[in-house]
Write a structure and sequence with these properties.
- By secondary structure, the protein is mainly beta.
- The chain is about 5% helix and about 55% strand.
- It contains three helices and 30 strands.
- β18 and β19 form a beta hairpin.
- The radius of gyration is 32 Å and the shape is elongated.
- The protein starts with a strand and ends in an 8-residue tail after the last helix.
């Protein structure tokens, strides 16, 4: 789904004429006591580019002036022309024009000007396939924008209200992430680009690593052999040769994986195995709407340091908790909960190379039911 991404946007308040005291010092006019001049028409709202518009009153104007320096007023007969300069500030701004047909007859008209805006209908995280791609997005911007990318495989261009992003074919053997930078008078923003093929780059063998507590209640980091596979219409993480398969969900729009609570994952001895997850140890829930998630990324440093790994990584977060619970019923609740087989935080997935075999202990962990 393409979301409407507003990079820079300034909101201005209408109605300054009726709330002059709330619009800043530029909007307060103290030298006009009488408001007896009738305004026939007034066009006094400007965009950030400024320009000239008009006010028409009844009677010949003797004097007209704008309170703020960024606006100029000139009078000729009953016509007052108002010119606003370009607004390079992020904020909108407001002032007033004082119009006098005599020393005793006058009126005040509010002037509003928007700040600059840049709006592009593009996701904050753009995910494309491994093939060569070209995508385009409409741009609405007060000023011209500049788009660029520090990554050699990404080309970004802007012309005539359209931003075009192109990627070369990804033959690296793993997903890759990059970015494009968008700059305008209003500021700078970044769009993240991910190029990935799920079947080719993400399915396969992993280590699930997490921080647990050993039998002496001491912290220990453990690894488990996992395999991300399609099982019918479902996607699961199969735990070695244990027969346990943890249901997971892949989000193609963010290249991320999530695990939900209250998911059946198989059996261990006479127990039914189910998932329990939460943002921390004090926030674990049986509710299936509770999930932990993380986005895949690639670490060249890791691939170099650990030759058995291909560099593809996912983290669910340092405090996120993953539990494989044991239950005496398929209805998972506090009443049916008997203990846990796995409980850890700081959960990672590290993708293994296809030539890397896992150790037997990782493939078939010696589970013990813990309370």
């Amino acid at each position: 789904m393409v979301m409407n991404k507003v990079l820079f946007h300034t909101i201005f308040a209408l109605g300054c004429l009726s709330m002059l005291a709330a619009c800043g010092n530029d909007d307060i006019t103290n030298d006009v006591d009488m408001h007896t001049v009738k305004v026939v028409s007034a066009k006094t709202s400007f965009d950030a580019l400024g320009g000239t518009d008009s006010i028409i009153v009844e009677g010949d104007v003797k004097q007209a002036y704008a309170v703020a320096s960024w606006a100029k007023a000139e009078a000729k007969g009953s016509l007052v022309t108002v010119t606003a300069e370009v607004n390079n500030d992020m904020q909108s701004r407001h002032t007033t024009v004082v119009i006098k047909t005599s020393d005793a007859d006058s009126t005040v008209v509010a002037i509003d000007q928007l700040g600059p805006i840049t709006q592009i209908d593009v996701p904050e995280n753009l995910v494309l396939g491994d093939e060569a791609n070209t995508v385009s997005y409409k741009v609405k911007s007060t000023f011209d924008i500049k788009v660029s990318s520090p990554d050699s495989w990404i080309t970004a261009k802007y012309a005539k209200g359209v931003m075009t992003v192109s990627t070369t074919a990804n033959n690296d053997g793993h997903l890759r992430r990059g970015k494009i930078v968008i700059e305008s008078m209003a500021g700078k923003d970044t769009i993240k680009i991910t190029q990935v093929d799920f079947d080719r780059d993400l399915l396969g063998s992993y280590y699930l690593q997490m921080d647990e507590t050993d039998e002496n209640k001491q912290p220990v980091t453990r690894r488990y052999a996992m395999k991300l596979v399609k099982q019918g219409k479902k996607l699961v993480l199969k735990l070695g040769t244990s027969g346990i398969a943890v249901p997971v969900t892949y989000d193609a729009e963010t290249a991320s994986l999530s695990i939900a609570s209250n998911q059946q994952a198989g059996k261990y001895k006479d127990y039914f195995v189910g998932t329990i997850v939460g943002p921390s140890k004090n926030q674990l829930y049986f509710d299936s709407s509770v999930t932990i998630s993380g986005a895949f990324f690639y670490s060249e440093k890791l691939a170099t340091k650990a030759p058995e790994l291909d560099g593809t990584v996912l983290t669910f977060g340092k405090t996120a908790v993953f539990v494989l619970g044991a239950f005496n019923s398929t209805k998972f609740s506090n009443d049916s909960y008997q203990g846990y087989l796995m409980l850890g935080t700081n959960v990672y997935l590290y993708k293994r190379k296809t030539t890397t075999a896992s150790a037997k202990a990782f493939d078939n962990p010696a589970f013990e039911l813990k309370k």
